[in-house]
Design a protein that fits this description.
Layout lengths: L1 H9 L14 H13 L4 E5 L4 H10 L4 E5 L9 E6 L2 H14 L4 E6 L4 H17 L4 E6 L6 H13 L4 E4 L4 H7 L7 E4 L8 H6 E7 L2 H12 L6 E5 L6 E5 L3 H4 L4 H16 L16
Parallel strand pairs: 1-2, 2-3, 3-9, 4-5, 4-6, 6-7, 7-8
Antiparallel strand pairs: 8-10
Helix pairs in contact: 1-9, 4-5, 4-11, 6-7
């Protein structure tokens, strides 16, 4: 929604939009068909769980453009997908984690080892190893994008095994962040800037990144206006403005951000902003060998 609003502000008069939230796939189909009946020529189904629905509707309505994500599939000629190249945001988190850990053990709590979460986790490993090759990295997956309870349990387990800096991916990560509140010496790196606004985030989150879906929306609108209806993946990265990165505003946590940390992060940010795909070797990260 934020991306739609921002894109609309940056492209005055280019499009209007309507939003329907919290739609199970079975209900989303009825809503999407209503959008088509109302004359909307672009339908975005935000969630890989809508893939089958989108492919079915794309066949039924060849003159309507559909998009879903996060996914990297190449769809039919009237379907776009979009994929955050979140190895980049994970890499920044990893750099900071590798430099602020005192016990030389850091942890990552992920949902499943797939999609943009897998990219974030492997980028995190790359960032840690770049600045601190000797650091031990603990990796755990809850098997769910929404199981905050299990994420919290895994975070506590990693803390019990010595981790003093944690990060996590997807909505379930809020459980891991919340679990750190009971451990004064444990810090957090966020995958979502909104985590700064939580009680635990205010006290624990040293830095965070967020997806900026305005980059996707603008590409979709411009492509449609140019006559291209789909059949490709739209990436999100620092190069095209698809990510936002911020440090904490908490003075106590700011004191941990040394000149070395900021210099390393700035160098990585500059490189990724200047050129996309600089961390393509994230696919080579093998959790069993870290």
């Amino acid at each position: 929604y934020d991306g739609l609003v921002q894109a609309q502000e940056e492209m005055p008069g280019a499009f209007t939009f309507q939003v329907a939230e919290k739609q199970a796939p079975v209900d989303a189909g009825s809503m999407a068909r209503q959008f088509v009946a109302d004359g909307y020529d672009l339908i975005i189904a935000h969630g890989a769980q809508y893939k089958n629905l989108v492919l079915e509707m794309a066949e039924d309505y060849p003159n309507v453009v559909f998009a879903y994500g996060t996914a990297s599939d190449i769809g039919p000629e009237n379907v776009y997908t979009y994929m955050p190249e979140s190895e980049e945001t994970g890499y920044l988190s990893g750099i900071i984690a590798g430099l602020i850990t005192e016990d030389n053990i850091v942890g990552y709590v992920g949902p499943v080892d797939g999609g943009d979460a897998a990219r974030y986790g492997r980028g995190f490993v790359m960032g840690v190893k770049k600045v601190n090759p000797d650091a031990k990295i603990l990796v755990a997956h809850t098997g769910s994008f929404s199981d905050t309870v299990k994420a919290g349990e895994f975070a506590v387990s990693q803390i019990g095994n010595g981790a003093d800096v944690l990060t996590g991916a997807s909505q379930q990560a809020i459980g891991a962040l919340t679990a750190t509140a009971d451990y004064p010496d444990v810090l957090w790196l966020g995958q979502d800037i909104a985590q700064f606004d939580t009680a635990a985030g205010q006290a624990k989150a040293v830095a965070a990144s967020s997806y900026n879906y305005a980059a996707v929306i603008k590409d979709l609108v411009n492509n449609i206006k140019a006559g291209k209806k789909g059949g490709e993946v739209i990436p999100m990265n620092f190069n095209n403005g698809g990510f936002i990165f911020e440090y904490t505003s908490n003075p106590a946590l700011q004191a941990l951000l040394t000149d070395e940390i900021k210099s390393q992060v700035s160098a990585a940010l500059d490189q990724m902003t200047a050129q996309a795909g600089t961390l393509a070797n994230y696919v080579d990260v093998d959790y069993s060998k870290i």
